[in-house]
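Hi F.,

I've been meaning to write this up properly since the lab meeting, where we talked about keeping a consistent format for the predictions we share between groups. The idea is simple: the sequence comes first, exactly as it goes in, then the structure tokens exactly as they come out, then a line or two of notes. No screenshots and no reformatting. I'm using this chain as the first example so we have something concrete to point to.
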Amino acid sequence: MSSLSARIQLLMTGSFLALSAMAADPQTALTVYSSAQPGGIPAEWYRPLPGMGTPQASALPGFALVRVDRDLDLQRGRSALKFTDVAALIDPTTVQFRSLTDPAGTKVLEQNFQFDLVSTEKLLSRYVDRRVSVESAEGDGVKLTEGTLLSANDGLVLRGDDGQIHALRNWNGMKFGELPGGLITRPTLEWDLLAAKGGNHRARVSYQTGGITWWTDYNLVFAEGADANSGFVDVGAWVSLLNQSGASYQEARLKLIAGDVNRVQPDRKAFQMRTFEDSAMAVAAPPGFEEKSFFEYHLYTLGRPATIPNNSTKQIELFDAATRVPARKQLVYYGAEGLGYYGGLMLEREMGPTSNTKVDVWLTLRNDKASGLGMPLPAGRIRVSQQDKADGSLEFIGEDKIDHTPKDEDLRVKLGTAFDVVGERRQTDFTVNTKGRVMEEAFEIKVRNHKDQAVDVIVRENLYRWSQWQLLSQSAPSQKKDARTVEFPVRIAADGEAVVTYRVRYSW
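Output, unedited:
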């Protein structure tokens, strides 16, 4: 049997009703909402590779509000209007039709969404007991078999004009007399309208659709400063729009919503079976995104029209690149990372000795105007590079993700682990007095610096055994970061070592 992608010809023997009202100058506005986790969109979703499947578009973590303004020719009184330029993943329950010319005198009586789209399989099923022409290869030519289609299961079965039965397993194409009633080529909205005024109306159609999302990618270039702990970054930000909604949006006014907008989520179990560099001429740059507060979210409006084709990924600069933003490289030794408060008193001695030797590398910068930034930053993935002075090339040094970050807050980017700085953590004492309802524990933390210059390191410790604790002794000043975390900032000389000791008492 031929595959469902076989060539199909439609010979139109009758007139086919097209869209009853065409737009003279449609204007489209698109507001895109996203619940995509930073870095959570795999490349194959928006850059399909041969042999690699992509998820259903309905699985994309986002949606859009689409608004289309266009001129429509309406009849006075009651009439039907078909509107085909809609997304395939439209939510029909969100559709609104409004006449801007005569809103009070124009009313929607009924609304239908038709989505029985034409396909090879549907055409064959609709043409059972009807006349068709089938093309099949014969030698160097093509053989034409005409007759009544009796079956399209496990091949084609036709009854010829002479009464003979033809069973065809291999066929190249088929000719149908017309498009059967009920089948359409594009998703279509149909309204039963009542209009007090006939003639030209400026109308607005709005709806929500799935299959579209956006996220932010930040590109940072780090340059070292006067010492090993400081430097500068150049910051660029790009918005990526992934459109698999089943519609293209031409010259649309684009808006992006950043924030966690709550939506009612369907019961997925109920649908489990159904869803599986500089120009030579001085030209003014077109306006980019303008940001403003909107309710409890942030709204980014592009100052120029943008075309968002279907099945495409589009990237737009979020803001002009910021240069020489002060940044600080921070080394953090978290020897007991992974140990935390589990909701109860922890009296087991072996909870303590676990030691991690890795020292994490962080980059910290301030999101304020004084630093060259100072705008609310949508959640996204941050990639950091540094220039190799030997050949001028940029080399990737790490990436992280950030949540929605307001202005005047710090950005902290984890780049990886240090090669030349290592840590060691060991428990030196542990006692429990159950009658006295106290427990004491002591630790020694060593951090060794094998660099040829001094470094600043933060030694971070979790006091995880119980909520009430007190430091009895400590070899270096500490800072309490939260209810169960303390940090000891230390400076380690080149090829040197720093030792931090402390003793903590828990009581209950």
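Notes:
Residues 7-34+61-117+184-209 form one domain.
Confidence is low (pLDDT under 50) at residues 1-24, 50-54, 268-284.

If this format works for you, I'll send the rest the same way.

G.
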